[in-house]
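pipeline: protein-struct stage 2 | run 1193 | ABC transporter permease
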Amino acid sequence: MHILDTAKVQICLALATVLLLPFVLNSGILATEILIYAMVVAACNLLLGYTGLLSFGQGIFFGLGTYVAGVLTTRWAVPIPLVLLVAVVLGGLVATAVGWFSIRRQGVYFVMLTLAFAQMFYFLAYTFSDITGGDNGLLGVPRPQIMGHVLDGPWGYYSFVAIFFLVIFAVLLVVTRSTFGRTLLAIRENEGRAAAIGFPVRLFKIEAFAISGAITALGGALHALLIGIAPLESINYHTSEMILVMTIIGGSTSLFGSVMGAGFYLLLSDTLSVIWPRWLLLLGLVLVTVALFFQRGLWGLVERGWDAFAERRKGPQKEAGDV
């Protein structure tokens, strides 16, 4: 394991991100979005980076979380803690069902199944507009309250989300470093050998889906509470594409790479959209560059920089020792 991939370093980097964002960014909404999508991308990383499953179904769970927050808060005034709990449970259950069907096929057929599920859930949300609001979405999603005070300020809600981000990041660190996580890596490297040893491969894949779906749904609910709306676009398959792009840009070999990927994508989108309306063309060039020259993403670039720095430090030490 690379020194930067140790649990202590990863936790310190996550904590530093939470503390530095308010000083680096002027927009509390943008900073909060970075933390929310960092959670979601880290959950996607559990499937792609650790299990080797390229899923286009992450938008299902994200959209499901937004609708849970929208419906429960605007129509039944359910307390926010219960709303988030329902989003996590329902996201995990739906992800279990989607994973159970999808993992019956491998390769491109698995990808097609997850994409088909994404399209199916999108049209379900579009069709049942009485529940989801259709094209208009669900408006008026309220911010949570703490001790009677509404977190209507952007930085107040940022602190609320930051707690969830740190907890989820720590949980995923524990999961990926456990026997369960090491087994997922074994399945990714050689699924046939893992099955021959006796591991229940299908069960491990379904469990990875469930964990990823639960966290993604939580991110969707937090995002709906942030922007005050549960839009139809949140369950569109383009959301799945965006999450996958963030994962690939950051690098699927490290959880903190997910944070870097989410931050880079959102900051680049925010900057380029002001410069040029067709900013997606420039983003496409960035993705081509990453695919050609940075196959391990931004995190791989950081690791190479750290290794080069460590080698330079070793050079003078060796010369001093020779003297």
